[in-house]
Amino acid sequence: MTSPNQHQQSAAKPEPTRALADRLCDWVVTVDHKKLGIMYVAAGIIFFVVAGLEGAAMRAQLAKPGNDLIDPATFNQLFTMHGTTMVFLVGMPILLGMGNYLIPLMVGARDMAFPRLNAFGFWLFIFGAVLLYFSYIGATGLYGTAAAPDVGWFAYAPLTSRTFSRGNATEYWVLGIMVSGFGSITTAINLITTSLCMRCPGMTLMRMPLMVWMMLVVGVLVITALPVLTASQVMLLFDRQLGAHFFDTEAAGSAVLWQHLFWFFGHPEVYILVLPAFGFVSEIIPVFSRKVIFGYPLMVAATVAIGFISLGVWAHHMFAVGLGPELNAFFAASTFLISVPTGIKVFNWMGTMVGGRIRFDSPMLFCTGFVAMFVLGGLTGVMLAVVPFDWQLSDSYFVVAHFHYVLFGGVLLAIFGGIHFWFPKAFGKMLNERLGKATFWFLFIGFNLTFGPMHVMGILGMPRRVYTFPPDRGLDLWNLISSLGVLVQCAGVLCFVWNVILSLRKGKPAGDDPWDAWTLEWATTSPPPEWNFDRIPVATSRRPLWDQKHPEDPDWKYE
Amino acid sequence: MLLVTESFFFASFVMAYIYYIGRSASGPQPKDVLELGPVVGNTIALLASSITIIPAVRAVARGSRGAVLAWLGATIALGAYFVVGTGLEWQKLMEEHGLFLGTNLFGTTFYSLIGFHCFHVIVGLILLSGIWLFSGCGLLKPRDGERVELVSWYWHFVDGVWIVVFTTVYLVGR
Questions:
Q1: How far is residue A216 from each of residues A77, A117, A125, A208, measured CA to CA in Å?
Q2: pLDDT value at position A105?
Q3: Nearest of A264, A214, A206 to residue A539 by alpha carbon
Q4: Which residue in A156, A256, A336, B21 is a FRET match for A65, CA 20 to 30 A apart?
Q5: Under DSSP, is residue A469 helix (H, G, I), strand (E, B) or coil?
Q6: Shortest alpha-carbon distance between residue B96 and chain A (Å)
Q7: What is the 3-state secondary structure (H, E, C) of A27-82?
Q8: What 3-state DSSP class applies to A241?
Q9: Is residue B167 in a domain?
């Protein structure tokens, strides 16, 4: 709290400095879901650049066979930090942050259900993230010098035991993720409560925007899956610090138990990342096709089904462990099963586009890119669910290609689509359309150049997580193409960053509703006032804003 | 919602315990060292505290301070009995049987499961003591009834977890 004395001092300073300090202070102490949402996304984008550079460094090392740009120990740290950062510090904060920003606006509320808890969750996340990256200077690794964690993002036992993982870098991994995980859990509780209890009059469950439905299911998945990760990390910490034997095979502990616990978290985590992306796409595609979303009830049902089934597919990450034919068959079957509701969604998006008057503005470009790339990633996923096929390609670059098509081609393209779509709402300025399209094409082409060849590399037998490879195995060309693709992606990211800076400074004013959309966030000003709505809106149908704009032909007549 | 999260957290430890029952390579086994007698006393105390908290919550809503202090006091005393009882049991296990967290798998899973539960009991006790003090200072108003009820839900949850833990560790696992 500022004392009167401090006030006088700051008042004596020149005007701009004081304003800047005040504005910073506003952001630090805020409990406004919109500011927190923007901070989440900004932090996520910063970490996206960091993790992207880590990925680029790995591709530079792998550009030619027998390269010695990066030594093996550093390479291990790079892929660990790249994976951990992308999942926990890029995907989670951006998606939860956008949920944070949009859910109260979409359901017509003035803020989240627990605003202070919300701020607490955000600062926990930041603290966990900084803790994880502090390991680069503060932890001790294999050689007693500063080192980041190097156990891979899923940190398999017994690699994490004290014997094989010297120093305390692994502790940083555990604690950093655990703390930011607590933040995610509080956010999830907030999202669930907000979408269930804070809806405006008339907003029944079956009138909620699909994005809200998906974030609701994501919230449920977060509070069921993340505590299992926390528990297994506590066990790991006990093993390392207190001499317990959870994963210590010499004392009859089990390394497979870690895999079970980790993937019980890890697979729902994939859906925690991809469901919000589905949400963005389900909001954007109808607006740019000028049609209502095709099969709304089926979309809701599919989302809930994905939520349930995703809790029962975890062991498809463990086919190579040797769990026995019965378990393998069960998890292969459940994995095939989960592709059904996912397929339903893909067809519904296409059904929405069919016969629509499609406008290919940049958000829509990203979303169509998303549908195409996600289908590819999904199909390789179904291939990997075939147990013998998985045995052949487990831990190869084929798997790397698969999950990058899901997480990059899927989630990240949808995130970019979402940012291009809602940026005008958040800042009141349009993003530059030409730069937006350039971003898309650079990212799309670069992404396919980088990760497409990885399918071939995997089938040719290149294992993942190797720091180099021998020449003349047919791998040289594919690796080179893959590395060159990174440059194209970098151009895309540069376009995006430049676009944001440029548009923030002198973008076209957006107006309240630049896309002629139908959900409630477009009913208020851009950017929305701190209290969101001067009057709490009333939802008359699934497209409340359409009803306001077209009183002669309202939606509720057809519901 | 917090309780759902906690359930999954505990479920992980219970699963680990079940997974490892009877798989310790060396050292004391559960059936050699665990005694039912004192634990049954603890269990009865904890279950009874879940009953005494009900009239306490009602008394908060009614605003009758004496009843709050008495029933809440009884709840806290019973909970404290449970914690002390667990402490004594652990002391015996460590001193007489040499069972520590790192001794064998049984020690690992036993101490972490019981320990995390006991930690939750202690958190509950701190919350309840806080309420008791507020009530003693006359700061507890009838409109706080809902908050106190939430604490009582937490307490019931901790109790429910104990039933699962007790069944696993002392009845099935022995």
A1: 35, 17, 20, 11
A2: 94
A3: A206
A4: A156
A5: coil
A6: 20
A7: HHHCCCHHHHHHHHHHHHHHHHHHHHHHHHHHHHHCCCCCCCCCCHHHHHHHHHHH
A8: helix
A9: yes
Helix, strand, coil share (%) of chain A residues, nearest 5? 70, 0, 30
Look at B114 and A53; give whichever has higher pLDDT: A53
Which domain CATH number covers A490? 1.20.210.10
B16 located within any domain: no
Phi, psi of B153, rounded to the nearest 5 degrees? -60, -45
- Residue A223, token pair as written in the block: 């509070």
A337-394 pLDDT tens trace: 999 999 999 999 999 999 999 999 999 999 999 999 999 999 999 999 999 999 999 9
**Which ipTM was obtained for this model?**
0.82
Q: Is residue A233 a contact partner of residue A224, using CB atoms and an 8 Å limit? A: no
Per-residue pLDDT tens over the stretch A27-36: 888 899 999 9
Please give the residue of chain A at the shortest CA–CA distance from B27: A251
The answer to the question of residue A5 being in a domain is no
Residue A147: predicted pLDDT: 82
Residues paired with A140 in a beta bridge: A146
Give the three-class secondary structure for A22.
Answer: helix
Number of compact structural domains in chain B = 1
User: Structure tokens of B131?
Assistant: 């309420």
The Cα A559–Cα A204 span in angstroms is: 12
Give me the domain span that covers residue B70: 32-172
Q: Which amino acid is at B148?
A: V
- In chain A, residues with a C-beta closer than 8 Å to the C-beta of B101 are 238, 242-244
A224:B6 CB<8 A:
no
Considering only CA atoms, which of A465, A278, A470 is closest in space to residue A378?
Answer: A278
Task: Give the Cα separation of A559 and B4 in Å (integer).
Answer: 35
CA atoms within 13 A on the CB side of A347: 9
Reported residue count of chain B is: 174
Chains A, B: CB contacts within 8 A come to 74
Q: Return residues 100-129 of B near A (CB < 8 Å).
A: 101-102, 104-105, 107-109, 112
Q: What is the DSSP string of B78-125?
A: HHHHHHHHHHHHHHHHHHHH---TTT-HHHHHHHHHHHHHHHHHHHHH
Question: Cα–Cα distances in Å, from A55 out to A16, A188, A218, A489?
Answer: 40, 29, 27, 11
Residue A473 lies in a domain: yes
**Total number of domains in chain A:** 1
Q: Which of A195, A188, A200 minimizes the C-alpha distance to A97?
A: A188
| C-alpha distance from residue A11 to each of A6, A15, A104, A515 (Å) | 8, 8, 36, 43
The tokens 């919230």 sit on which residue? A219
d(CA A10, CA A94): 35
* Closest residue of chain B to A181, computed from CA coordinates: B5
Residue B19 to residue A189, Cβ atoms within 8 A: no
| Residue A406 and residue A274 in contact, taking contact as beta carbons nearer than 8 Å | yes
- Domain encompassing residue A169: 32-558
